[in-house]
Amino acid sequence: MNEFDLRRICDPESIRSLGSPWVVGGWKCATNGFVAMRVPTTEADSEGDYLPIAKLFAAHTFDDCTTPWPTLPCDAECSACYGTGKQPRECSRCLGMGCKSCSERGKRVYSKSPPCPVCLGAGRTPDQQCIGGELFVGNLLALISGVPGCRYSSDIVDNILTFVGDHGLQGLAKGKYRETQ
Ligand SMILES: [Zn+2]
Ligand SMILES: [Zn+2]
């Protein structure tokens, strides 16, 4: 099964995310606040709270996602793991406040840390670049590059990139800058 692992975009320590994907209305969903993805599923709705992203998806059309996602060279350090290839955790010394041990980041990579979910352990991502006239950060580009069969719409509305992938996946990603009018 060649399917995008939605857990890759779940950051258990982010308040903009749920720690794991959830199911609502026949969709398995995940988001980290900057990118949201969902795939059709026959699983029952999740118990408890979930983020109401159905409205977000309803506001976009995915019919025009026909442009194949380009192969992007990974020539930048992965900012999610500081190029280490391992998933950082809250620094146990300063509990996220920032200290010398964590280079004031508040997060550290530990020797037993699992592979970074963004770069899958490579430590490298694409550099930030424009897709459809909108600038996207390397982290988002790395995650979208991992979507099998990815196609996107070059017609970007309100700085949101829409894309689709195999298994009926739909995705939204936020550009770096919002045009002010
Ligand atoms: Zn620290
Ligand atoms: Zn990484």
Give me the side-by-side strand order of the main sheet. Answer: 1-2-3-13-12-11-4
Q: Biggest β-sheet: count, sense, barrel? A: 7 strands, antiparallel
**What overall form do the CA principal axes indicate?**
globular
Our count of helices gives 2
Number of strands: 13
Span between termini: 45 Å
- Estimate what percentage of residues fall within beta strands: 15-25%
Structural class designation: mainly beta
Please trace the helix and strand order, writing H or E for each element.
EEEHEEEEEEEHEEE
Portion in helices? under 10%
Chemical compounds bound to the protein: zinc ion
Query: Could you name the ranges where pLDDT drops below 50 across 5 or more consecutive residues?
Result: none
| Mean pLDDT across all amino acids | 90
User: Which radius of gyration do the C-alpha atoms yield?
Assistant: 17 Å
Oligomeric form: single chain
